[in-house]
Amino acid sequence: MKTAETLILRGAFDEASNQLTNLVDHLLVNSAALNPFVFYEFWMGVEARWNLGEENGQLLVNIENTSENPLPSFNMKAPTPPNWRASPPTQIIPRLAPGESAKLLFNIIPSAMASIRDIGAPGSLQENLSIITGYTLSTHGLTMDTRVENKTTEKMTEVLIMPWIPPGWTTNSWPYIRVLSPKQVEYVAISLQTKI
Fold this sequence. Notes:
Layout: H1 2-10, H2 13-29, H3 36-39, E1 42-50, E2 57-64, E3 74-77, E4 85-87, E5 90-93, E6 101-109, H4 112-118, H5 124-128, E7 129-138, E8 141-150, E9 156-160, E10 169-170, E11 176-180, E12 185-194
Antiparallel strand pairs: 1-2, 1-7, 2-6, 3-5, 4-6, 7-8, 8-12, 9-11, 10-12
């Protein structure tokens, strides 16, 4: 890129054009190494389903190519919080034509400390709260749409919503729900910014 910039400053536009073409070709050939959450446009849905009374569950991931261009194949690491275990740890998303989708399934086990800190005993958070998150990646940025459901018969207060964030993105603040009544469903949208 620096070489192309230097050539442009010297007025060598044909040479600069060739340099930029080579750079783009290199990026396309090595697209599997690119962060898909920065360079591509797609929708991803994430839902955890838990086995009642157990510490393990399944993470369902659905990816749909929402762009007008093919989505190259890439490796997808299980979108879990730190210290959680997933099996397999990564899976390959196949190349997707526009409108095509792929579904992945990970077996997950939360970290024991996260479960104890969240509610008081491993497994109990998963049985009380259902969180489904959709990630819409477009030319306008990345938006997370989260569905939160209180699955209990008791009122919950000050529920902090902190879904998994893809690499390369950040947020300045997390939303929280002041009151979540029994069986109530709330929807929360979170806009993310790229890390600089």
